[in-house]
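Researcher: Structure for this, please.
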Amino acid sequence: MKKVYVLVLTALFMLNVSATELASKKSVEKLMELTEVSKMMGAMQGQISNMFNGMSKQMNISEKERPAFDQYMKKVGDLLAKDMNWDVFKEPMIEIYTKHFTEEEVKGLISFYQSNLGKSMTKKMPLIMQDSMLVSQELMKNFMPKIQALAIEMKNDIQKSRQIISKE
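Model: Predicted structure, token format:
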């Protein structure tokens, strides 16, 4: 009877281990392919570029200043393309996915993204991200001046504090 009990416990333990098996690199790559993560990265780069280009309005860039601004923006775009592309992000993203998802979970996600609903989600996600970025930009217009004012206030308070300390 003891042998049967040990055998059952061993089998249950092995089932539990396999149920919590970390996702494989291969399955995560399949999931990323189905969710078109690389395309979303490209779309994010475009949104970031647009956000930086929108700075010209906020900075009141004149026509005379435009060539220098455009030259700077080209450098920013080149830097984004070089340092923030899918080839740079792919391996770290795979590590993140394999760290947080089990193989079973990734297989479930793969099944979902192979379904019509999952394909619809993949198709619409870049549009959702684009609209979200626009909302974020709009919110940041009101938020950033407040942060800048707080930074100035903090700087002034620190300077006052240093002056008091130096007089002591």
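Researcher: Any notable elements?
Model: The longest helix spans residues 116-167. Residues 22-139 form one domain.
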